[in-house]
Design brief:
- By secondary structure, the chain is mainly α.
- The protein has two domains: 1-8 and 218-463, no CATH class; 39-204, no CATH class.
- It contains 17 helices and no strands.
- The chain has helices spanning 10-38, 41-61, 65-75, 79-107, 116-138, 142-166, 170-195, 206-240, 243-252, 254-276, 283-316, 325-350, 355-379, 382-403, 413-432, 435-452, 454-462.
- Helix 10 packs parallel to helix 12 (325-350) and helix 13 packs antiparallel against helix 14.
- The chain crosses the membrane at residues 15-38, 50-73, 85-111, 117-136, 143-163, 169-191, 212-229, 249-270, 293-313, 325-345, 357-376, 382-401, 413-430, 436-454.
- Its main location: membrane.
- It is a multi-pass membrane protein.
- InterPro entries: Poly_Biosynth_Transport (IPR050833), Polysacc_synth (IPR002797).
Length: 463
């Protein structure tokens, strides 16, 4: 560590990445009524399962090499080193995909699944576009990351309408549209990378590949753990209760999902900033400044959401899901611990300590499953929401204490007291369920917090 920190572009990158992320999510939400009217319930369910399986398998099959490529590109200053990282990463991914495709083609005659070729194509193109996106981020081209996200979304949308609405080929049409969109995205990203003129000078490096694998393998455990964590509630509720309770629990998670989606954009930018700042002598001071601001924002963001939840819940959720309300409040509080755990995860990425990411996520997943199974027959659906809250809290605590071995991050008594008070008041007002009181207090709370935090907001904008 030698240089000082001027700016890591944290806010700028959050805005750029946010445009792409929120824009594509908005388009998806807008199109949801059309897809559900054009496709049968069975077809829509098939697409959902297909996409869930692809999303779960891609991080495992890629060995998370793309994450290593991203992190090591950030540290690379010379074109030759960037080229070596690029070639080592891409050639490794191509080799992995070649093995997967050969094995799949050998096994296909014994597999009775009409979408098997589409599934293989989906794996191939999703792995490729994922690694290219991480290369783009590693090169600091976040604008291209966002352009690609919007481009792929629009191409997917256009061909989905053509295939499903006008050619009426249902599931096959959706999958074809997805493949075409990914091909367009891959071509666009390759053009952006080619313009950097860094491909020619370096070469594949075995020792670097070993370093990549050492860095990325714990990331697989991290991804699998999050997949288990998110899926275990649904599976346990479905097994011990029934699908009706699953529907209630799904509705309960909508508000917390919005918070997590918004924070995920910042988290993506924070990983990059925490990595770029790592070479600085001021790294610990920098992380503590950001930590204090984000801790403050998360406490009050969650508290304000609790206060206005009676209003938002009624707008977004049909009254037949009214049983979901209290679970919704528990899950909103849980998002605070998720957000802070994600923040600490960004620092682990920055200091290249991915072992702690995988271990802590697995502990949280096991905690969630254990509490769920023990309590589900005693308190019913509350077991799912309470186990999620406790597992996120456990994740938050373990990551916080493990982080102290890397850098010293502190939570002072002021923030602990603020959190207890803010969450307590927010929870009480949300249970009283008076929409006028919620609106008035929520508005005043948001205004007061904004006015009192002008100094911190200005500081964050400079980061």
């Amino acid at each position: 560590m030698g240089k000082s920190i001027r700016s890591t572009g944290l806010v700028k990158n959050t805005v750029i990445l946010g445009i792409g992320s929120i824009g594509t999510k908005f388009i998806s939400v807008i199109m949801l009524p059309f897809y559900t009217s054009w496709l049968s319930v069975n077809d829509y369910g098939s697409i959902d399962v297909f996409n869930a399986l692809v999303a779960a398998l891609v991080p495992v099959l890629s060995l998370q090499i793309e994450q290593a490529v991203f992190r090591f590109l950030i540290d690379a200053k010379e074109k030759k080193r960037k080229s070596t990282i690029l070639k080592t990463g891409i050639l490794t991914i191509v080799f992995i995909l070649s093995i997967i495709n050969i094995l799949a083609i050998m096994l296909f005659p014994f597999i009775d699944y009409k979408l098997k070729y589409y599934f293989l194509f989906a794996i191939d193109f999703n792995v490729l576009i994922t690694v290219l996106l991480q290369i783009i981020r590693g090169l600091g081209k976040n604008y291209a990351y966002t352009v690609n996200s919007i481009l792929v979304c629009f191409i997917n949308l256009l061909f989905s309408i053509i295939y499903v609405r006008y050619e009426n080929i249902g599931v096959i049409g959706i999958l074809r549209a997805n493949i075409i969109a990914n091909i367009v995205g891959i071509v666009y990203l390759l053009v952006v990378i080619w313009k950097e003129r860094i491909w020619k000078s370096g070469s594949f490096e075995k020792t670097l590949l070993k370093t990549f694998v050492g860095y990325s393998i714990p990331m697989i455990l991290n991804n699998v753990s999050w997949w288990i964590l998110n899926l275990s509630d649904k599976l346990i509720v479905n097994q011990f209760l029934n699908t009706t309770y699953n529907g209630i629990y799904a509705a309960a998670g909508k508000l917390s999902y919005i918070i997590i989606s918004l924070y995920s954009v910042f988290s993506l930018a924070w990983q990059e900033s925490a990595s770029r700042a790592y070479a600085s002598v001021e790294y610990e001071e920098y992380c503590n400044k950001i930590h204090k601001i984000i801790l403050d924002i998360c406490i009050h963001m969650v508290a304000i959401t609790l206060v206005i939840s009676p209003i938002i819940f009624d707008i977004l959720i049909n009254e037949k899901f009214s049983q979901a309300y209290i679970h919704n409040l528990i899950l909103i509080v849980a998002t605070f611990f998720w957000c802070m755990s994600s923040f600490y995860g960004g620092i682990f990425v920055g200091v290249k300590n991915t072992d702690n990411l995988g271990i802590t996520s697995m502990i949280a997943a096991i905690t969630n499953i254990g509490i769920n199974i023990v309590l589900i027959n005693i308190i019913g659906l509350y077991a799912a929401s309470i186990s999620t809250l406790i597992s996120y809290f456990v994740l938050f605590l373990i990551r916080y204490f493990k982080l102290q071995k890397c850098i010293s991050i502190r939570i002072d008594m002021y923030h602990i007291f603020s959190m207890i008070l803010a969450f307590g008041i927010g929870f009480y007002i949300s249970i009283v369920d008076n929409k006028i009181i919620s609106l008035i207090i929520g508005t005043l709370y948001a205004m007061a917090y904004t006015i009192c935090s002008i100094k911190e907001i200005k500081l964050l904008l400079k980061m």
